[in-house]
Design brief:
Length: 212
């Protein structure tokens, strides 16, 4: 399993598109295997690589909307850097990930990570969660997998729950609007920096059109 590194979100092909074209046994450019990714991830948001970026300030904005003490479900929590930060600010985080290496890495730090593959729908019995968080995950996914993920997240959240996610800044803003709207989410704020679009949106009811 390859994983995007923090410095290569500019790669325009998503990982699965690249592997489909080049073959599963090829090594994608600028992608790392999970142990290298873990080794190379900067510690904390004050690392030089984050200078001028708006990751921390966007998360802070999201947390304020969620309200202290509320539970946030995180998908693709990886090394747990964001969950650790959110917990340090007084929030409860349900950590989930699809990869056993990341689940094992966090288990060594005493953190429980539930196994959930966003592309396969909700395999957990969660419902009516207050908030969801997905960082540095959708850049790895194809458009249809992102749609499946939105569907999973929609099912897990309660009405009006807040959802933070980021996507590479090469995305068109119109695509962010389409993915949110078709997934049942109303955009609260889009913040752009040199690497990401940070999006905060809110789950709304999906209105089904009936034939006259
Ligand atoms: C680039 S890492 C980002 C980790 C973490 N969110 C962060 O920002 O530090 C991508 C994460 O997405 C997870 N991931 C990849 N495919 C996934 C899927 N289908 N369902 C859930 N998580 C997935 C990976 O295991 C990994 O933890």
């Amino acid at each position: 399993m390859y994983i995007s590194g923090y410095n290569n979100l500019r790669n325009r092909r998503t990982l699965d598109v690249w592997l489909t074209i080049e073959g599963e046994s090829a090594t994608p450019p600028n992608f790392m295997k999970i142990p290298d990714y873990i080794k190379n991830l900067p510690k904390g948001y004050d690392a030089p690589i984050y200078k001028g970026l708006k990751l921390k300030s966007s998360i802070d904005r999201f947390l304020k909307l969620v309200g202290k003490g509320n539970v946030i479900i995180e998908f693709g929590s990886g090394t747990g850097r964001d969950a650790d930060y959110m917990e340090s600010k007084g929030y409860k985080v349900v950590r989930t990930d699809s990869e056993k290496e990341f689940i094992g890495f966090q288990a060594e730090k005493g953190k429980k990570v539930l196994k959930l593959n966003l592309k396969n729908g909700n395999t957990l019995s969660f419902k009516d969660m207050n908030a969801a968080f997905v960082s540095c995950v959708f850049g790895l996914f194809s458009w249809s997998d992102i749609q499946k993920s939105f569907n999973t997240i929609f099912q897990i959240l309660r009405h009006n729950a807040f959802f933070y996610f980021n996507v590479p800044c090469e995305w068109a803003e119109s695509d962010i609007i389409i993915i949110c709207k078709s997934g049942g989410f109303k955009i609260n704020k889009i913040i752009k920096d040199a690497v990401w679009y940070h999006v905060i949106c809110q789950r709304k009811l999906l209105f089904i059109k009936h034939k006259a």
